[in-house]
Write the structure tokens for this entry.
Amino acid sequence: MKELHLNNKKIICTVTNDLFRDRRMIRICDTLHEFGADVTLVGIKKPGSLSLKKQTFKQHRFKMFFQKGVMFYLEYNIRLFFYLVSHDFDIVNSVDTDTVLAGFIASRLKGKKNIFDAHEYFTGVPELQNRKFKKGIWEFIEKIILTKIKNNYTVSESLKNLYENKTGQKYNVIRNYPLRSRFEDVKIFDKDLSGEIIMGYVGALNKGRGLESAIEMMTLLDKRFKLLLIGGGDLEEELKMMVNQKNLNERVKFTGWVDPHEIPELLSGTHIGLNLLDTDSLNYQVSLANKVFDYMLLGIPCLTMDFDEYRIINEKYNCFILTNTLDPDINRELIEYVVSDGKKYDDLKISSLEAAKDMVWEREKEKLVGVYDR
């Protein structure tokens, strides 16, 4: 690892979120800085955005006039383009298709490098399902730009295969593992399965995340089961209304967005982790969510979808509760079975902790630096 050094390369990373909650990009930028790069992370400031914490790298946010839709992405890419052409950089790291237009044009104009980082299969997200015109715009951008970018990486083998077939370019896989050091001070203790059972979810409260199904499942589980939703997002108010309508206010708790450093402690008291996803979304079918690795590091058995990436991990470690549906009744049965069988629960806990030894950022980051070093 020591032979890798980025020699003060100026790297600008671009995203369309408010930076505060983007744990993957914070890890990436920290790592690039650690290996000698001069890093700036560029995003947006929303009306409810929290103040940024001081990081090892620089941060810049655009205060947007438009908050969503076509005009939001148009405004963002125009502002990003002028930001890039007016700032020095050696590499622009375009994260996902919604930032790549400005990064590609600016890097070509200035004769600099452009690296594409695919966190998701952008044209396969639930928000673009049944929206042919909007999806067509993004497909066109990918066709004219991603076929020309030669430096690329993504989060899973499944997503790598999709983008390589689509663009004809090679992709590296940099998995979205958490930092083990962030979890070292969190106590992992034996869970009492005879009393209150807390199910935890961490991440965006957005469409396609199975959150409505999880809340519906709460109506089928007995009252000792609780649900903790850590995060915020587009569906937050709608989900709170659903909880209220079903008289679940005492059993379903929302934390809103929290400091990423608080997540391990919040999760540590939960018994089951949730990663329920829309089975019709191609983006989710090829996903490898960072939340499942958070659960692993804390020895929390995870109810997750029986998609390829999770199935491959489970075949090696036998650490997940796999489901192929969002049906609340079927998933209720799976959870009740696991928590009613102490040996099964303990086996999943031990297997999760064992799997987590291999799945941490400390072992993955060298591959990331290698992409930029080349």
Remarks:
- The longest strand covers residues 38-45.
